Amino acid sequence: MKKGFKLALSLLLLFALTSLAACNNDSKTDASKDGKSVTLTILHNWNGSAASAPKDPLNNPVAKKIKEETGVTVKFTYAKKSEVETANEAFATGNLPDIYDGPAWGGEAQVLLKAANEGQLVDLTKYLDKYPNLKKFTKKENMSQTLYDTVFKKQKNGQYFLTEQYPKTKADIQDWLYGLYVRKDIAKKLGIDPQSVKTKEDLYNFLVKIKNANLKTADGKSIFPLGSYGNGFALGIMSQYFAPIPGDTGWMISDSGKAKMNFMTKNWDEYTMYMRKLLKEGLLDPKSFTQSGPAAQEKITQGRYAVVPTQFPQLYVSERQFVKDNPDKNFVPLGPIKDINGNQYKTVFNVQGSQLIAIPKSSKNVDAALKVLNYLASDEGYILTHFGIKGVHYDMVNGKPKAKKEWVDKLQDDPKALTDLGIGGPYADLSGFYRDYSLAGGPYGYQYNKRYDVQNEFTKIMRPDGIKASKGKDAGAFVQDSKYYDQLKPIFDTIGDVWRQAVYAESDQKAEEILNQTRKALKDAGIDKVTKKINKEVQNGTNFVRYTTPN
Amino acid sequence: MAQLSEINISAQPNKSPNKRAEIKKKSLWVRIWEHKIFYLFLLPGIIWFIIFAYIPMYGVTIAFKDFNFAEGIIGSDWVGFKYFKQFFDYYQSWDIIRNTLVISLLKLVFGFPMPIILALLINEVRARVFKRAVQTISYLPHFISWVVVVTLMDRLLTPYGGPINGLIHALGFNEIAFMGNIKTFYPLVILSDIWKSVGWNTIIYLAAIAGIDPQLYEAAKMDGAGRFRQMWHVTLPSIKGVMVILFILATGSIMKAGFEQLLLLNTPATNAIGNVLDVYQVHAGLEQGRFSYAAAVGLFQGLIALILVVTANRISKKVNETSLW
C-alpha cells in the first residue's frame, strides 16, 4: 500500500513539474555564451518569411562569415502569423528576441513604439557613436516623412529604432511595377492589344469580353476574367481610378485645399459600386477577398486567371510553374489604366525603407547585437548578404560585384538556390541602405538573368515618364496626432472589413447602408473635426502629399 | 486484494450510528488521509485547475487596467470600466452580440435534441456489429479539425466544379454559391456543427441509457407497451436528469458561438450576420493589440454565461428538481 502510494505521489509530482515546465519558455536555451562567442536570436517579423530562410540556420556561408567577422552566431526566428499579432504577443509575454526586425509601417511599428515608450527597448543613444554604420539610420533624411512623423518623432526620452533598406541613391529607388497584368495568349485570342485598355470603362469591357469568350483551362475549368492573390491582394490598386491616394484611410485634398478621407467621399461609393459590378457579373473571382495565398497560387498555376493585379516580382515568381508548362502564356502589363485625373503614366512614390530594427532590453548582449548590425550595414556586409561569398557566388569586376553565371543558371531551375544558403534572405534585410544599383549596377545576376530583361521591358510600357518621389506630410499620419485618434482607430482597424462587406452586400442599397453606418460612426468619433484641422493646416501652408502611386 | 477490501469497507455507505459518530469526531485531515487513494485520483485534476484555470484568473484584472508592456498585468494602472464603456460605445457591438446570440440559440435549438435522437435510435438497433459501426462512424467527425471540415465544405459546395453543384446543374438547376452566401450561412453553420458534434455528444446519453434498469422495460412490455411506448415512457424519463444537466451547461455557452468554426466560415459577404464575440475578441486583442479591451469583452461574455447558467439551474431546480448544485 505504502509503496503504491509513494509511486503514485512521485508520478503526480512529475506531472505537476512537467506542467509547470510546459509553461516556461525556452528563451534562455539559445543563450549559449562561452567566452567570446555569443548566440543571438533575431525575430524576423515578416509573416511567411520562413520561406526564404536558409536551409542550415547556423552554418550557412553567410552565418559563418558573420561569426568570423563579429564572433556572434545569429539565429533567426520567423513570424508565422500577422506581424502585429507577433509583435504584440512577443512584448505581452516577454518572450523577446535579442534583435527585433519588422516592417517600418502600420500597426506593427506602433506596437514597437508603445514598447519603446514603455521602457521595453534599449535606448541606443549612448551606443551609436561606437557603431558609425548605424547612426545614419536614425536620421530624418534617411526615412520616409510618414515613418518619421508616426514613429521616430514620437519616441520619448531616447533613440530606440534604426530603419534600414531606404534607397541610398535615386537609382536605388525600387519600382515594384504595381499594376494589372493579363495573360498574353488570352489578349491575343480576343484580338485585343493589352495597351489599348486605358480606362476603367475599357477594363470593364475587356473583362466582359473575356467572360463572354467562355474560356476554359486545359482540364475544363472555367477561367475567371479577374482574380487576385491571397486576401484580395492587390485589388486595392484599383482604387487609384477613383482617388489620388489609394486606400480607405487615404486623404483627398482638392486644389482649393479641401480635405476629405477617401472612405467619406462619393468617389469611394463609385469605387465600391465598380467592384460590386465586377463581382455581381462574374468578372471577378468571388473568392478573391477571402482566399489564402496558396489557394490563389493554385489558381494561377492552373491558369484560371486572365487578369491579375500585382507587382512584378510576385508575378514573375508566381507564374513560373504555369509558364514552364505553358510557354507563351505568360502575363504582360495591361494598360496602364488611367488614374482619377486621367493620367496614364503619372508615377509618384512615397519613397521609404522597409525595416524597423530595435533591441529589446532583455537582449543578452546589446554590444554584440550592434556589432552584428554594424557589420551587416557595411558595404562588405551588404555584398555578403546580397551576393554571397567572393569567388564562389560572385567576382569583383571593376570594383563591383558581378554574379557568377553558373549560379544565375542555377537560379533559373531552383529559385531558392541562393536563399537556401542565406544569400538574399533575412540577413539582407539588415544590410543598411538598399543599394543594389549604386553599389553593383543592379541586383544579383541582372547581367544574365532573363527576369531583368522582362522587368526592363515592362518598365518601358508602364513608366515611360519615369518616376518621382512624393514630398510632404501624410495626412493619415497627421490624424494620428489628433486627440480623436483613440476613438477613430478602432473604426480604422475594421474599415477594410466593412468595405469588403459592402462589396459583397446583397444589394447596392444594402452596400450604401453598410458604408453609411461606418461613416456615421466615424463622424461620431470626430472625423469631421480632424478634417477641419487638416483644412486649416492646408490653409496655413502645410504641404501634404496629394498623390501617390502604389509601390 | 487486501487493499481492495480496505477501500470497500471505508466506502461503505451504511454504517452504524456509533461508527458515524466516530467518523464525525475525526478531523477532516485524518479522514482525507484515510481515503488518500481516492484523493490522489482527484489531485491531478485539482492541480490542473489551479495552474491553468485559477492562477491565470488574476489576469482578468487586465480588463480594468491600461495594460503596459513594462509594468505587466499587476503593475498597470487601474482605469475602471473604461474598456467596457468603449465596447458598448463601439458602433458594431450590438450587432456582434446579436450575431453571437442568434447563432448560439440556433445551435441550441437544432443541435441540442440531435444527440438525444441519435442515442435513442442507436439504442433501438439490435444488431451489435451495426450498432458499434454506427457509433464509431458518428464519433469520427469530432476528431476532424475545423480547418479540414471547412476546406472539405468549400471543395464540395463550390459552384466551380464542386460535386454538389455538379449534381444541381445536372438536374437542370442553376448552381448555388453556398459558401459566403448570407442566405445559406446559418444553415451551413448549424448543419456542420451538428455533423461534427452529434456523434460525440451521444456518448453521455448512451451511457445514461445503459444504466436504465432492464426490469423497467420488462414491466412496460408486460403492460403491453411497444418499442415506441417503451422509449417514450421508460428511456426518455430515465435520461431526463442528464438532459437537464447538459441543457444547463449548454446555456453557459450561449455567448460562445464557436471560435474556430466562425473564424473559418465567416467571409466579408456574411460578416453582417457572422461576426461574433469570440472572433471579435481575438481580432481586437491579438491583431489590434488591445489586450485590456479584449479582456473586457471576454469578461462580459463570461459574466453573461455565468448569469445564464445560474438562472437555468434555479429554474430547473424549481420545475424539475434537477440541478447542477
TrEMBL record, chain A:
InterPro entries: Bact_solute-bd_prot1, SBP. Residues 1-21 form the signal peptide. Keywords: Cell membrane, Lipoprotein, Membrane, Palmitate, Signal. It holds the Pfam family SBP_bac_1. The keyword Repeat does not apply. SUPFAM superfamilies: Periplasmic binding protein-like II. This is Carbohydrate ABC transporter substrate-binding protein (CUT1 family).
Automatic annotation (TrEMBL), chain B:
The chain crosses the membrane at residues 37-57, 101-122, 238-259, 291-310. One of its GO terms (cellular component) is plasma membrane. It is found in: Cell membrane; Membrane. Pfam families: BPD_transp_1 (PF00528). Residues 97-312 form the ABC transmembrane type-1 domain. InterPro entries: MetI-like, MetI-like_sf. It comes from the Bacteria. Keywords: Membrane, Transmembrane, Transmembrane helix, Transport. GO terms for biological process: transmembrane transport. The keyword Zinc does not apply. The keyword Transport applies. It is a multi-pass membrane protein. Its main location: membrane. Belongs to the binding-protein-dependent transport system permease family. This is Carbohydrate ABC transporter membrane protein 1 (CUT1 family).
